[in-house]
Amino acid sequence: MMISKKMTDKLNEQVKHEFFAQWTYLAMAYSFETMNLKGFAKWFFAQAEEEKGHAMKIAQYLLDQGAEVKLTALDAPKTDYSSAEEIVAGAVEHEIKVTRMINDLVDLAKSENDHATGAFLQWFVNEQVEEVASTTELLEMVKMAAEPGQLLMLESRLSRE
Ligand code: FEO
Questions:
Q1: What pLDDT sits at residue 1?
Q2: Which atom of ligand 1 is the closest one to the Cα of 50?
């Protein structure tokens, strides 16, 4: 194994966090389906797929480094949302939390002089900038759509994306 036991454990935890993000975004997508906001649902289903991709990318890195991938049980994601704004604000909060986790992993790689993992994590550092920006932009648009008609216009724009 080319990476430390501590790094292996932390990366396995991150695999779990990314799969949890997939579940969280699926729950958000299904809530939008329930609200008949199918454009928003489509956006969140796509996010969920991205999160699955993140989890599998880290799992593949563990394998490439000769480490074991250990999947563990996921908590149930939140499902009781009452508005589009609450959901999108939850997504922003979630991405900020994941950004902190990625930064902690980068700090660990630095402290262990683990250059390979540091380089691998750079992709995630950049991805988090994009994810925080795109969820924040969506939240700003939802906040501006104060009238139901404006929300439907946003909804139709997301359906076409
Ligand atoms: Fe995998 Fe949206 O962080």
A1: 79
A2: 1
